[in-house]
Amino acid sequence: MPVNELDSSSGIPLYRQIKDILRHEIIDGSADPQTPITEAQLLDRFDVSRAPIRQALKELSVEGFVYRKQGKGTFPVPGSRVHRPATVRSGALYQFLADTGLDPESTVTGVERVVPPTRIAQNLDLSKGEELLHFTRVISVEGAPLVEADVYIRAPKEFIPTGGALEERGSAFELLERQFGITLERAEHEAWATAASPRQAETFGVPEGSPLLVIETLFFATGGLPAGWRTAVHRADEFKYHFITGA
């Protein structure tokens, strides 16, 4: 069945099918960012009730694929393939990408226990010589590298996941919670732009000096204990990070 048609026999809710169709059209650029997406247009196109149309548009808005202009309608967000909404909890990007049908792949290398750099040790309030679990993860979407993350986790010495286990689960913190009951309470982020170094240019397949987005995250476990540190470098042309702050 063509990807722009609904399948009432698939068991997938109509709103989800409509959402996926529109999302793919926004991602591949076939949706005109200057043309509003209206309920009337979608009702005529899909021949369904208003409820699935409204739910699909609501979720696309939350995930950053569309935005609303007061009095003008709902418009596609051009450019990036991946829009990370504020509702995605820290450490759950891989699962979010999988849930939205982007077919992510995770490659984990260098799993070992190390004494971290001084700056990270200070931010995590470590004792002298304390070792952390360290690894590098590259998340690719549709075959193209999207994020390279350098991760340090404060965990029991008995926590020794393999690279394969980390690739399969997509989140070391999920494994840590399953095995030891250690859960994340909150995270603090800092973000800035940088230019791709020769190594980063090779990793992401972009020209040297291309813009990249860096997000550093300090994780806290229940009770406020510093639990980990991550430096994640993203392709700036493919990734948007939506966040909400207090008043």
From TrEMBL:
Keywords: DNA-binding, Transcription, Transcription regulation. Pfam families: GntR, UTRA. CDD domains: WHTH_GntR. SUPFAM superfamilies: Chorismate lyase-like, Winged helix' DNA-binding domain. Residues 12-79 form the HTH gntR-type domain. SMART domains: HTH_GNTR, UTRA. It comes from the Bacteria. InterPro entries: Bact_HTH_transcr_reg, Chorismate_lyase_/UTRA_dom_sf, Tscrpt_reg_HTH_GntR, UTRA, WH-like_DNA-bd_sf, WH_DNA-bd_sf. The keyword Oxidoreductase does not apply. Transmembrane segments: none annotated. This is GntR family transcriptional regulator. It comes from Kocuria carniphila.
